[in-house]
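Cross-posting from the modeling subforum.

Setting up a comparison between two proteins and wanted a second pair of eyes on the formatting. Protein 1 (sequence, then structure tokens):
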Amino acid sequence: MELGLYTFGERTLDPDLGRPPTAEERLRRLLEEAELAEGVGLGVYAVGEHHREEYVVSAPAVVLAAIAARTRRIRLSSAVVVLSSDDPIRVFQQFATLDLLSGGRAELWVGRGSFVESFPLFEEKLALLLKIREEEKVFWPGGRFTKPIPGLGVYPRPKQDPLPLWVAAGGSPESAVRAGRLGLPLVLGIIAGSPKRFLPFVE
């Protein structure tokens, strides 16, 4: 069993300050939390992506790279990258770079988002991301949401081959089936309720 921590970089009320921390203060503490997590022997530190005023992490790869510079052993994960609204090429490049900077400690957790409008985007972009991960020279026919790639290289390549890639889901049976069909590990985000109710998804 591997234990770790994840954070959304939330700016909730700090009792010591009597106010929420500034974005700068919260990011500084986030780095300290990651160092502490490694110091007590945890195996993973994961950072979520949000684009709202009350959160400070909109660029997980940047924050994880800063953590990489201050740690030596702990694995560094996104929790999650919302692939539906991102470019699979840039996501791969960012996490391949993180993997190189960290000495092979990066993990990429991708999700489709909370709103049904983005679901078709995720399927196609995940397929492209897997293609990029598997092949240095990418031949991609293009699709409804992605452009053709005529045998071009995507660089840099990560230290880990392949770069660890997980499908992250909030409790949809379809997401569990997709991860299983693709042979990818599954991360279940249990925000509330008993973890036992997620057992059918694992099965």
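Protein 2 (same layout):
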Amino acid sequence: MSRKVYITNQELSLAGYCPMMDNKPYFECWQDPDTQDGYNYKMCDSLEEFCERPLRSRLLAVIIRNEDDEPLGIVSLSPEGSPPDLAIMLYKPYRGQGYGTSAFALAAKYCFEAFGFDCIYAGCYETNEISRKMLEACGFVPNHDGDSHETHYLTGEPITQHDYVLHRISR
């Protein structure tokens, strides 16, 4: 089955999400404690319940490594009617290799081109140093007005999600 390719660079492509191929690895990524910690959310659904959930994202794309068509993770953009908030999940074997930064930059570029946004938001929790570095490497800057204070999903302790913004560069 071929996927619709939204955008590509030499290393990666962002391609259409196909539930038949992508639901299971996406669900399995949600089962990973590091993913849950990164999103401050405990996924309790079964695979069947997960597959029945409607996809509400404006963009839900699979990150594909071009050299071997290997799916590396997912990027998503918040639903219509909300500020454009970009998120990423890398499947565990592909973390820490630079794919996240490359994919996130590619997704931001696509969102500016395809949706015409003036800015895109993203966030990470105060304890997620890796995501903070990725956001900053992609050109996102802190947007302290958008920071949110929550409770940690496991400990109940206060935790802050830091908001970041990337503005379109006028050309």
